[in-house]
Write a structure and sequence with these properties.
The chain has 393 residues and is an alpha/beta fold. It is built from twelve helices and ten strands.
Length: 393
């Protein structure tokens, strides 16, 4: 299927010595592509290619050329142009099918060919497919370069750990090594769990693993242990890594930002408050039971009444403590969320950009593979459906 918008972005050089074919097909190509430069033979093709690319700074997206031409044939022209551009897509139009031309075409890396008389639709689809592959390759290179540059910037401000599908560490950056007090060679090929604090192994770490297995990104805070058993916290964003061709999970990359010291302290205080609340609730339950027992055993209302009153007062005191501590924990949670948002706002923006870049690279690679497979299928169908007559020009 034609992608008219895509074709309108392409600049093409068309080389054909037959004036009638060059005029008729050239007029069609000019309606389809952004710009078409026509040449009468291979020698003019080389000359125009160098003039437009060097002097006019115009980049050709593809070359469509006949093979058998005077002065310089199409394959000789391509061989010369390959000295300056090794991967520009080239589609040959030919009435020849002998092996010596085919072998030479392979040597000069001709992308594809179409037999004369030319099927215009077939020609345009072939050019489109090869140009899409080239464009996608360029985008992938740009995105990978951008990603590499971004990772270099991240390297100094965040910890980076790469883990395979079996949770074995593939690589760590110097920042993580410094914080964890491990040497890189001590971590490589070790299970990532050796750096995780036991408090996190059964909770957040398991949740992270389950999320990654679904192919989704996980964000949260993990508690770690250094080599010397010191505690540290990281706000982790774990991004799954997939094979671009199969889509299979290959592991994940975990990027971490050290949790703020004040946040850590408040988190530990909050945990203590939670523990106190649990203890207070236990006391409330015990006092409630005592009140109930005293009421059931009531034989001397006057004396028991004073006991019950005392226990009620104790119960009310405990309830007030619990309510106060609940307010305290809510206050801590609010402050921690404020600190958390301050800490990760910038990181979230960058991580979203990085994830989008990774997803785009994966999609482009997947699209590239699909285009290649379709092109091979199309080429095979052409070879099977059309005879290769001996030289007839």
């Amino acid at each position: 299927m034609f992608n008219k918008e895509f074709l309108k972005t392409l600049t093409v050089m068309y080389v054909e010595d037959d004036e009638s074919i060059r005029t008729s097909l050239g007029n069609i190509l000019k309606k389809v592509f952004k710009e078409v430069i026509t040449c009468v033979d291979g020698q003019e093709g080389v000359s125009n290619y160098l003039m437009y690319t060097n002097d006019m700074d115009i980049e050709f997206d593809a070359i469509i050329s006949d093979i058998n031409m005077p002065n310089m044939n199409g394959l000789e022209m391509v061989k010369e142009i390959r000295k300056y551009n090794e991967d520009i897509p080239v589609v040959m139009t030919t009435a020849h099918g002998e092996s010596n031309y085919l072998m030479e075409a392979i040597k000069v890396n001709v992308s594809g060919y179409t037999l004369k008389p030319i099927d215009t639709k077939e020609l345009l689809i072939t050019v489109q497919k090869f140009c899409q592959i080239k464009r996608n390759q360029k985008l992938i290179q740009e995105k990978e370069a951008e990603l590499s540059e971004y990772m270099e910037l991240m390297d100094g401000i965040a910890t980076i750990i790469k883990v395979d599908q079996n949770d074995m560490i593939i690589s760590t950056n110097s920042y993580f090594n410094e914080i964890s007090e491990y040497e890189e060679n001590e971590l490589i090929d070790s299970n990532a769990i050796i750096t995780i604090h036991p408090d996190s192994t059964a909770t957040h770490y398991v949740n992270m693993q389950e999320t990654i297995k679904k192919g989704e990104t996980w964000s949260g805070k993990l508690k770690f242990l250094t080599k010397n058993k010191e505690v540290f916290y990281l706000r982790i964003t774990a991004i799954p890594r997939k094979d671009s061709s199969t889509g299979n999970l290959m592991g994940y990359t975990a990027i971490g930002f050290p949790a703020d010291a004040e946040e850590q302290e408040k988190q530990e205080t909050m945990n203590k408050v939670r523990q106190n609340i649990l203890e207070q609730r236990q006391k409330v339950l015990l006092l409630s039971k005592e009140v109930k027992n005293l009421r059931n055993k009531s034989t001397a209302p006057t004396n028991n009444s004073s006991d019950i009153s005392f226990i009620k007062e104790a119960l009310e005191t405990q309830l007030k403590k619990t309510a106060s501590q609940q307010k305290q924990i809510e206050h801590y949670e609010f402050e921690i969320n404020v600190l958390k948002n301050k800490l990760i706002n910038i990181a979230d923006t960058e991580m979203a950009k990085r994830k989008a870049t990774i997803d785009q690279v994966h999609e482009l690679k997947k699209e590239n593979n699909t285009l290649r497979n379709n092109l091979i299928k199309l080429q095979n169908e052409l070879n099977a459906s059309k005879p290769h007559p001996k030289f007839v020009e």
